[in-house]
Amino acid sequence: MNLKIATEIGKCLSNQTRVQIIGWLKEPKKNFPPHETLKHFNDGVCVTYIQEKSGLSQSTISTYLTNMEKCGLLISTRHGKWSYLKRNEDLIKQYTQFLLETNY
Which GO terms describe its molecular function (predicted)? Predict the structure, then answer.
């Protein structure tokens, strides 16, 4: 993890809803129903469910999720017409470790 990447992640997390999404995805079984097709959370949560829980418009949540995926916080998997997102736990660990160890 370097300062540039950490700064991009920080920018991405500078929004209350995006922080909530990261929190919700930490425990998907607690926060979302399983998609009727997959019936599990191995590949994450259906984007539709994230949008519904957020209460935001489809275009707004799509922008948020795309930005979170671009900075590496989320991993996307597609099954047919459905997109599923889950946290990138490795990157989140690297980011938190970077913050703990940084002496700038």
Answer: DNA binding; DNA-binding transcription factor activity
Neighbouring residues of 7: CB distance < 8 A, sequence distance ≥ 6: none
Split into its structural domains, the chain has a count of: 1
What is the pTM for the complete model shown? 0.90
Query: CATH number for the domain including 23?
Result: 1.10.10.10
List the domain range (segments joined by +) for residue 43: 3-101
Q: pLDDT tens digits for the chain (104 residues)?
A: 999 999 999 999 999 999 999 999 999 999 998 877 777 888 999 999 999 999 999 999 999 999 999 999 999 999 888 899 999 999 999 999 999 998 77
